[in-house]
Amino acid sequence: MGTIWPEELPQAKGPKYKVVADTIRTAVENKSLEVGAKLPPVRELAYRLGITPGTVARAYTILTDEGLLQAEVGRGTFVAPPKSPILDDVWSRQLHLLEARDPNHVSLFSPRLADVGQVALIRECLQKVAQADPWLFLNYPTRDAYLPVRQAVVDWLSDLPLGKLDPDDVVLTHGGQNGLCVVFQAILRGPKPVVLVEDLSYAGFRRAGELMRAEVVGVKMDKWGLSAEALEHVLRQTRAQAICVSPEVQNPTGCHMPLERRKEIVEVAKKHDLQIIEDDCYRMGDARAPSFRALAPDRGWHVSSISKTLTPALRVGFALPPVGRGADLRRAAEYGYFGLAQPLAALVQLVLSDPRAKDLAGAVRKRMADYVRVTVNVLGGFDLVWDSEIPFVWLRLPSGWRASAFSRAAEREGVQVRSADEFALRDGRAPNAVRIAMNGHVPLSDFEAAMQRLRALLDNPPEQISV
Known about the structure:
Blueprint: H1 16-29, H2 42-49, H3 53-66, E1 69-72, E2 76-79, H4 85-95, H5 98-101, E3 106-107, H6 118-130, H7 147-156, E4 171-173, H8 175-187, E5 194-198, H9 203-211, E6 215-219, E7 221-222, E8 225-226, H10 228-237, E9 242-245, H11 259-271, E10 275-279, H12 292-295, E11 300-305, E12 317-320, H13 326-337, H14 342-353, H15 357-379, E13 383-385, E14 392-396, H16 403-412, E15 415-416, E16 418-419, E17 433-437, H17 444-459
Parallel strand pairs: 3-15, 5-6, 5-9, 9-10, 10-11
Antiparallel strand pairs: 1-2, 4-12, 7-8, 11-12, 13-14, 14-17, 16-17
């Protein structure tokens, strides 16, 4: 690396981080830096050039986002192999994020994970899959063949309080949303079943229920999430078969349901023969209380995925049935889609079994916490619900703003947030709030600039309240 750098940073117009990035890019293009070459640590290069570590880190981030460099946890930053021209021409042109082209545009609709080395791990595992036995690419998937994959999932989930978990209990799904649909197919009966959700909840609950031709009914919440008293009241009026809840990380409010409340809900569910579907897709840290599957082994269903821990791109999730309902869940999956494609299942096994995977998930969590801290530093003076291990915050708007008007104003400033209206039932009432998701695809400096633009809006509400 020393051969491409003079004694000081090359003289050029523009910010220093761009000069650093351009110098590295030129070195890669003229082969001064070969594929696989390791770059100096951020602080070392910063010291040599007489600039701040943040300047070098931003240059590395830009080049990593471009695919020119790749970062590997515990090993460093390397020159990445060249991309496939076909993928460059077809996929990248269509899927490249708008904020990569325009730093003033930042989407905070859904959490976007930072790359801390998981991309390199997935690429490595994909190469192994590509070299696998040819029969992997020629046969229908079978449950027996997937036993090692299901065992890898059990090991991946081993730290969670899920109750007794056997590989035969695991049903592999195409992400958490597909997992919800499969569970609904295993549970719901009759021409017009009823599904319950919290008044404010993940819109995917409603969509999955409607797909099953179910009536979706809201249940009132309090600061701990689902109210057991309200649940009892609704169950007296309906013959609901299932309720969807997110006790660890309530989406969108970010609240956590304590153990005592969970026990109250279990008692109500037993009294009315209600199935409990727990969506655990937004938890990034340790579970803080036993799952409903552990508390109610005869009626607790569990759905999770790797979308908020490693990557949402693979669309891999896990559905777990209560005791005695495994055959129902497997039947719904097998009738619906046979199972994951064999190469994808092999990839899942390799990734989850790799000893680096859990460390990478921890590194993702820490990196996303950096974005939460920036958000709190800028917006903490407002009514903000946050947790360093949750990849979004819930902002109750100050007087003068309506959620829909604030969302539109934010978008005009290049920042996209989700209004509370998007989490309410069609006939429900939404509070004056927005959900702000963390975006690890953009540099922290650009993310902070976006937060500052939101802060300016919050400090200056319109004179007339618009709806």
